[in-house]
Amino acid sequence: MQRRTHRSHVSYMDKSREYYRAHGYDNAYAWAHHDDVPFTPLGKPLAQSRVAICTTADRAPRAQGRGARHYAEPLASASRLHREMFWDRDATHTDDPETYLPLASLTAHRDAGRIASISRRFYGVATEYSQRKTLNEDAPELEAWLREDAVDVAVLVAL
Question: Phi-psi bin for 150: left (phi > 0), alpha (psi -120 to 50), beta?
């Protein structure tokens, strides 16, 4: 048997529970789940679908002010993403932009004919530990932008 020299996965559920306990919260973090939302198959083949990326990478360092917690940006502005916010520095790094905004991979899938096109914008939702804000503020705006851009499939990438 080969000895592992590194973690093979990150248990974000356990890490979130540990975070809440370490900060004195009485209740462990409760993960959102929606039993009443059914699985919905794609309306058309993936090879005919427009795909978008939604990331938790933020647009600006805190010193410059964060502005809105969610955003839609042209693909050309991807290099302006700020990667120094909250993420598990013990489990990963941000040296490779493909880990938080995999545009090159998405482009390769488009060029190979696996997807039809890439949305003209990418979308972001800053990391927040509030299901209420995510559900009531971020998700409706994100959905509106995805519909506006005629996106069929959104790939969610957490940093």
Answer: left
3-state secondary structure the chain: CCCCCCCCCCCHHHHHHHHHHHCCCCCCCCCCCCCCCCCCCCCCCHHHCEEEEEECCECCCHHHCCCCCEEEEEHHHHHHCECCCCCCCCCCCCCCHHHCCCHHHHHHHHHCCCCCEECCEEEEECCCCCHHHHHHHHHHHHHHHHHHCCCCEEEEECC
Full-model pTM: 0.72
How does the average pLDDT of the chain come out, rounded? 79
Q: Say which range, 45-54, 59-68, 138-147, has the weakest mean pLDDT.
A: 59-68
Write down the residue that tokens 């005919």 correspond to: 48
**Cα–Cα distance between 26 and 47 in angstroms, integer?**
48
Mean pLDDT of the 135-158 span: 91
88-125 pLDDT tens trace: 666 666 777 787 788 899 999 999 999 999 999 999 88
